[in-house]
Write a structure and sequence with these properties.
The protein is mostly helical. It has two domains: 16-101, no CATH class; 109-163, no CATH class. 56% of the residues lie in helices and 0% in strands.
């Protein structure tokens, strides 16, 4: 609103790419929003890289477009970004632990053939997988002849502990 006697405010030049992206969001999503390389986006990506938030860095633009189309508020958008980052960190942490463990093979209990080892007690192995011995501060020793599945059960136990929450 211009007051009488006051000069009109000069028109500010706009970044046409940013303006068109904003208009896309405001115009009831009539045109598809394209990735915009604005100063803010470049700076945001730089900060996310320095903060070591790779998932947010990779997903923020895509998720922002989707949340804008679904009319999701800012806090829900931020929550979704943080959840993606946390899930990805847990996944990478699990992969890193398994890689550093240097297991000879990636084994699971589903791969184990209990039929070929009838002397192995399934209930005892299932109890071992529940990790109650950790809470009771007890040790577990796997004893048996070569080829009875000691290593397979031990690796499967370690993998299950790291993969499952």
């Amino acid at each position: 609103m211009v007051q009488p006697g006051w000069p009109a405010a000069p028109a500010r030049p706009r970044d046409s790419a940013a303006a068109s992206g904003l208009l896309c969001l405001l115009a009831a999503r009539r045109c598809p929003m394209k990735p915009i390389e604005t100063k803010s986006l470049v700076l945001l990506q730089h900060h996310l890289k320095l903060l070591r938030l790779p998932t947010i860095h990779d997903e923020c633009e895509r998720l922002a477009v989707r949340c804008a189309q679904e009319n999701v508020d800012h806090l829900a958008f931020l929550l979704q970004l943080c959840e993606l980052e946390l899930l990805d960190r847990e996944k990478r942490s699990t992969q890193r632990r398994l890689r550093f463990a240097r297991f000879p093979n990636h084994k699971t209990l589903d791969d184990f053939k209990f039929e070929s080892q009838p002397s192995l007690n399934r209930l005892l192995v299932a109890e071992l997988m529940r990790c109650q011995y950790l809470e009771q501060r007890e040790s577990v020793i796997l004893i048996g002849n070569p080829g009875t599945g000691k290593t397979h059960v031990a690796i499967a136990k370690a993998v299950a502990t790291w993969v499952l929450p």
